[in-house]
Amino acid sequence: MFKIDSIILNQVPKNLRLCFIIEKNWLEIVGPKLSKLSRPIKLSNKTLIISTNHPIISSEISLCSNIIFDRIKKNLGIEIDNLKFKTSNFELKEICKIEKDEEIKIEIEYPECLVNIENEKIKKNLLNIYKTIVKKNYLKVTKGDE
């Protein structure tokens, strides 16, 4: 991680930073199917709040709660004791263009914990930082694949 990214992330409250880390690793935690239908949105007092697009998805994730707790603790070193669910539409996507020799489109899904920030100036800055990090990571992956 770049120094500036570390400095900025250290200014974000710990629970928000940990939720961001969980959200970033959500695919590995719950798998490809459930990661498309759910998203962690808040971490408070060792309780992870998960947004799903349907109550049945909440039930399915709830059945796997012990596995989720273990994966988060083992892979990320974050201790979670409880899961709570919120049914909502959590999709926020943005198509972003990277100007190079050719135009590349990246679909960015912003974490809801960033989208729900009330202070518009802070929200805009954090969303721009998130977008920059996603673009840099995308370019690293695509350059390595060539």
Can you give me a brief rundown of this structure?
This protein has 146 residues and is of the alpha+beta class. The protein contains eight helices and five strands, in the order ααααββααβββαα.
Task: Give me some keywords for this one.
146 residues, alpha+beta, GMP Synthetase, Chain A, domain 3, 2 domains, 3-stranded mixed sheet, two-stranded antiparallel ribbon, 56% helix, 23% strand
Task: Describe the protein's architecture and organization.
The protein has 146 residues and is of the alpha+beta class. The chain folds into two domains: 3-87, DnaA, N-terminal domain (GMP Synthetase, Chain A, domain 3); 93-145. The chain has eight helices and five strands; from the N terminus they run H-H-H-H-E-E-H-H-E-E-E-H-H. It has helices spanning 3-11, 14-24, 26-30, 32-37, 55-63, 65-76, 112-115, 120-145; strands spanning 38-44, 47-52, 82-87, 93-99, 103-109. A three-stranded mixed sheet has the order 1-2-3. It has a two-stranded antiparallel ribbon with strand order 4-5. It starts with a helix and ends with a helix. The relative contact order is 0.13. The model is unreliable at 92-96, 98-103 and 142-146 (pLDDT under 50).
Helix content: 55-70%
- State the order of secondary-structure elements, H for helix, E for strand: HHHHEEHHEEEHH
- SS-derived structural category: alpha+beta
Question: Total helix count?
Answer: 8
Radius of gyration, rounded? 16 Å
Q: Approximately what portion of the residues adopt beta-strand conformation?
A: 15-25%
Tell me about the largest β-sheet.
3 strands, mixed
| CATH architecture classification name of the largest domain | 2-Layer Sandwich
CATH superfamily of the largest domain: DnaA, N-terminal domain
Q: What is the residue-averaged pLDDT?
A: 77
Ends distance = 22 Å
**Shape label:** globular
> Can you tell me the CATH class of the largest domain?
Alpha Beta
**Poorly predicted regions:** 92-96, 98-103, 142-146
**Total of domains:** 2
Q: Count the strands?
A: 5
* Major beta sheet, strand line-up: 1-2-3
